[in-house]
Each structure stands twice: as structure tokens, then as C-alpha cells.
């Protein structure tokens, strides 16, 4: 049984810290950027988000198959951290560049740069995720690795989200293209170096070899019941996060307002979207730290069900919080509670994918770790695609005004649009969490079954210490 060193777990965490700094800005701020900074209509921005992320999701299994069949002195999956990191950072900068073009030219630019960015994200993140399946053969140790991964991911997300608005202000202005461009230059540079650190310190300890064809890998995936159920549950989880996250910038601008301050121990501090999201990321880290002891005690499946049931209740109650000083504090409290729960979920889902990979190796004799982990990335991106597009299209259908000049001239957002924003922060994500509970109820990989699988696989694998 492989027990990895602490520095390797920390280095593995740096990989998702890098990815998450980009991903959270894309998920939470990119819709706002396209509609309010870049200058696209809500409808066009929604179609753009949907089309590009669907392509990205479809490309994930392709990358998984390629990674599964890569063989280098550095392993199967780890080399991609080195090879793709520079392109990852460059594409992120281009994504937040606003060229001096007409509307059609800008729309083409947006499609090209978004597709390039998401392709680079796939090429580095799918192999990175698959590494979890070959760094240890211990199911509990995989949960520990996954917890380190998500702890660092949320740490990176906190840094990028909390600093994004002040950073863009310092770099030229939050409402200017220059501010967003130079802000992303800073983030992209940091992300590049974190991927390099991850590559240099981590190792692949398990040697897995697929003895079947690509077609057999896909056929095995399609009849893998645990995979279908988990990908459905993971899709709901990512949809939940994206809907809430993509709504926050609009929610704060139009319902809470730009100049709200709160008193804390005699000091005033600004209550803004980045603070709300940043508090959520810190709370996610608390949830991540709680995942291992909770899931070890209750089992992964039971933990998943209880967490999502709690999300249904808390999200529904969020709708009834008033926009008053007391209400703003309540919003922060609910954000903390909801984020702790989603923090528990994140490493749990990745660890469950590792269990599904072990199940597939035993049941179908296929070492398709990359293909299976790519499906988790696919679920993440489908959730982001559907959630991001749904937010934009719903706001458009309820008459939301994106023209800053109209609002500066005294125009007010329609009451229906404001109500829609409140639903997007409450009842709609609550319904998605309820679906996740129903799906995972039928998930068959209990703790007992996982232990049986690990015992049978123990003698089948070659281990590199």
C-alpha cells in the first residue's frame, strides 16, 4: 500500500489552486465581463458560454483517452502539467482581452479565445485529475489527497475572488477593459508557476496498463452504472455552484448595491461581491478539512446525501433574507454554512470518481483512469455551461438591463428581473441539490463494496515506490 509524503500532497494541491483561480473567475465573473465590460448582449453571451463549454466538455473524454495511452519517464498524466502550463496562462490573458473591433469581430474573438482557453484547461486539468488514481492504491488516502487538492483549490479561489475587484481597480478600473486585462495577467503568471511546482514534486506511484482498445474503454464506460449515477450527481453539484456563483455579481450590483458597508467590532468594511465569494471560499476550506473524518465515519454515499439535503434547506431559506443591515449579516452566515457544505462535497466527489475507476478496473479489466476522471471534468463543464447560460438567458427573459449608461441616466431594473435574481440565489439551486439527492440514492459503491474491490485489486497492480 502506497503512503505518500506530505510535501507531495501539498504540491498536488498547488495544481488545483492554479486551476481554481482561473475557473472561479470564469464561472463567477466571465458572464458579467461579457455582458457589462466586453459589450455582448445577454443572449449572445449565453449562447457563447453554452456552446464553448459544451465543446470543452465533449473534448474531455478525448483528452482522457490520450492521457491513458501516454507513456513517458515522468508517467502518464504528470507531463501535461509541464507541457500545457504556458499555453494555459497565455489563453487566460487573451480571454480577458477586449480588442478594438466591431460587434461581429468581438463576438468571433470571444468564441476563439474562449474555445482556446477551455481546450488548454482540458489538456492540463484532465491529466491532473487522473493523477489521483495513480498516486496511491488506498481509498482513504485518495480522500486525503483529494482534500489537500480542494483545500488548496479553495485557497486559490479565495485569493482570486477576494482580490479580483480591488486588483482590477488598481490596474485601471473595475468597469474598464484595461483593468480586467492586467488583472488577469497577474493571476495567469501565478497560475503558471503553481503548475510547475506541482509537476516537479509529485510522482505517479502506480503503474496501470489498459489491455483493451479505446472502443472497449468507451463501451465499458457506457455500461458502468456507478459512473452514470455519479456523473449525474456531480453535474447537479456543479450546476448548483455555477448558478449561485454566476448570479452574485449581478445580485450585489442590483439588489444589494455598490456602496454597502457593515460594522464589525467598531470598524466599517465594504460588503461587495468579492468579499461574499471570498468568505465562501474560506468556508469551503473548512468543509474540505471536515470531509475526511465525516466521510470515514458516515461513508461517502451517506455524506453526499446528507450534505445535499442540507443545501436544499439552506438555499430555500436564503430567499427570505431581507435587504437590511441585519439581513446582510444573515446572508454572510448562510454563505458560510452553504460553502462549508459544498466544501465537504468537492473532495468527496473526486474521491468517489477514484472509487469508480477502481470498480471499472476490476469489473471490466480496463485501466481507464484518465477517461473516467475526464468525465468528472466533463460534468463540471456541463454544469458550468448550463448554469452560466441559464443565468444569462433568465435575466434576459425578465428584462434585465445591462447598459451602464441607461442605469446611470436613472433607469431602474424591472421588478421581475430583481425577483429572478433572488430565485437564482435560492430556490433554483435548491431544486438542483434535491435532484442530486435523488440520483445518488441509487449509487451502489458503499464502503463495504469499495473495501472488497481494493482487496481484489491489490495483487493485480504493479506499485512503484
How would you summarize the topology of this molecule?
Elements: H1 6-38, H2 42-68, H3 79-95, H4 103-130, H5 139-170, H6 177-201, E1 206-207, H7 214-222, H8 225-256, E2 261-264, E3 267-270, H9 273-298, H10 300-318, H11 325-364, H12 369-397, H13 404-408, H14 415-424, H15 427-440, H16 447-457, E4 462-463
Antiparallel strand pairs: 1-4, 2-3
Helix pairs in contact: 1-4, 1-5, 1-6, 1-8, 2-4, 2-12, 3-4, 3-6, 4-12, 5-6, 5-9, 5-11, 8-9, 8-11, 8-12, 8-14, 8-15, 9-10, 9-11, 10-11, 10-15, 11-12, 11-16, 12-14
Question: What key phrases describe this protein's structure?
Answer:
mainly alpha, 465 residues, two-stranded antiparallel ribbon
Shape verdict: globular
**Helix run count:** 16
Q: How is the biggest beta sheet arranged?
A: 2 strands, antiparallel
Strand order of the largest sheet: 1-4
- Distance linking N and C termini: 10 Å
Mean pLDDT: 84
Which spans have pLDDT < 50 for at least 5 consecutive residues?
A: none
Compute the CA-based radius of gyration: 22 Å
User: Helices and strands: which structural class?
Assistant: mainly alpha
The oligomeric state is: single chain
Number of strands: 4
Tell me the β content: under 5%
The helix fraction, in percent, is: over 70%
Element pattern in H and E: HHHHHHEHHEEHHHHHHHHE
